[in-house]
Structures are given as C-alpha cells and as structure tokens.
Specification:
The structure holds 2 protein chains of 2 kinds. By secondary structure, chain A is an all-beta fold. Chain A has no helices and 11 strands. Chain A is globular and about 40 Å long. Chain A starts with a strand and ends with a strand. In chain B, the strands form 2 sheets. Chain B has a 5-stranded mixed β-sheet, with no helix packed on it. By secondary structure, chain B is mostly beta strands. Classes of the chains: A mainly beta, B mainly beta. Chains A and B meet through β4, β5, β9 and β10 of A and β3 and β4 of B.
Chain lengths: 116, 110
C-alpha cells in the first residue's frame, strides 16, 4: 500500500519556539493531505485540510496563525506550530489520499510534540 | 458525515474471532464505512472499507447490514498484535474528512 512518511517522530522544544513537522507521500502524489491532533487517551481531532498549491482549510476552533500549513508540492505538506506553548503538546498525525483514485486515506506514523 | 457508535472496549481470546460492532444509523446512501486501527503511539492503519456489500481482505472481513445502519468488523483469528483501538468511520465519498469517534479498545488475551 501507499506510504506516508512523517518527520520527526518526536520533538521536544522550549516554550515560545516554532516547530515544523513534515508529511511526505513516498510513492504517490497527494493533492490533499489532512492534519490531526490527538491528546492522551482521546481520539483524533481533524485540524485542517491541506491542499497543494492553495491555502489550507482549518476546522472550527483551530488557529490558522498558530498552525501554519504549507503544501507546496504533490508529495509534501508541512505543519508549523508557531510560538509553541505547553498546551500545544500533543500527538500530531497527517494523512493523505492518492490523487485521482482510491477511497481511503493513508496515515503517517505521527509526531509527538512536547513543549517545555 | 454520519456519526458512528462503538462499544468502548472488548476482550478477545487469542486465536478466536474478534467481532467488533459499529452503529451508523444515520449513514447516507453514498457514505462508505471504513475501519482503521491505532496501536499505541502510532498513526492509524487502514483495515478495510465497504459501501453496501460485505468485504474481505487479508486482514479482516466487513459485514454490513442490509439497511446499512450497522456493520461488524471480524478479525478471524485474533493475535496479541491485534490489540489496538479500532475506529469505525462513515465518510461521504469525496470529502475524506474523517471524523473519528472514540473507537473500541480491543484487548487480545493470551
């Protein structure tokens, strides 16, 4: 099946710094990718839809200026958590759909962000 | 997207079939039912999906009721590595904005 690579798998940063998370589709093109956040013992919450070559669409309650999404190519989307604070500590997961076919999404392995 | 309801937890003996139910009584005619599972600290793994007909692949079988208001995921011979949280998702074809419920935490017992 298609592979989605997410990097880094774990990051620890100081409060106030920015962190970039990459999501790559390794063997397929993905016009659309999705970003999720998951707090401990909770389910995944959709944050935003990332569209190649256009602005991301954010879900209600998600601050677009805090969670910057860039989808500059058909195989790469990035999520930047700007001015991170401890409450941003969470498990971030991306997913991608094969452009032009297939009904299912493929998920990355996730990034555990810890803000000190 | 249709809301799905699943039992919060289930146990299954190793080697036995695990049957995980999902209720999606508000599903519409063009919404697929997807099953994913998530092992601790990993991204969700695709298992199977279907629209109307029952489906089977190398991992599992999906049984969808005729009225499509519920479905059952069957792991025919559960192993310890099948211990995970299983999510049932109903998605209108074309949106792919999966809405995850709370899922079922399956524990396979030795």
């Amino acid at each position: 099946g298609a592979v989605v690579s997410q990097h880094p798998s774990r990051v620890i940063c100081k409060s106030g710094t920015s962190v970039k998370i990459e999501c790559r589709s390794l063997d397929f093109q993905a016009t659309t990718m999705f970003w999720y956040r998951q707090f401990p013992k909770q389910s995944l919450m959709l944050m935003a839809t990332s569209n190649e070559g256009s602005k991301a669409t954010y879900e209600q309650g998600v601050e677009k200026d805090k969670f910057l999404i860039n989808h500059a190519s058909l195989t790469l989307s990035t999520l930047t958590v700007t001015s991170a604070h401890p409450e941003d500590s969470s498990f971030y997961i991306c997913s991608a759909r094969v452009t032009g076919g297939g009904e299912k999404l493929f998920f990355g392995s996730g990034t555990q962000l810890s803000v000190l | 997207d249709a809301k799905t309801t699943q039992p919060p937890s289930m146990d299954c003996a190793e080697g036995r079939a695990a049957n995980l139910p999902c209720n999606h009584s508000t599903i519409s005619g063009n919404e697929y039912v997807y099953w994913y599972r998530q092992i601790h600290s990993q991204g969700p793994q695709y298992i199977i999906h279907g629209l109307k007909n029952n489906e089977t692949n190398e991992m599992a079988s999906l049984i969808i009721t005729e009225d499509r208001k519920s479905s059952t995921l069957i792991l025919p011979h559960a192993t310890l590595r099948d211990t995970a949280v299983y999510y049932c998702i109903a998605d209108t074809s074309g949106t792919y904005k999966y809405i995850f419920g709370t899922g079922t935490r399956l524990k396979v017992l030795a």
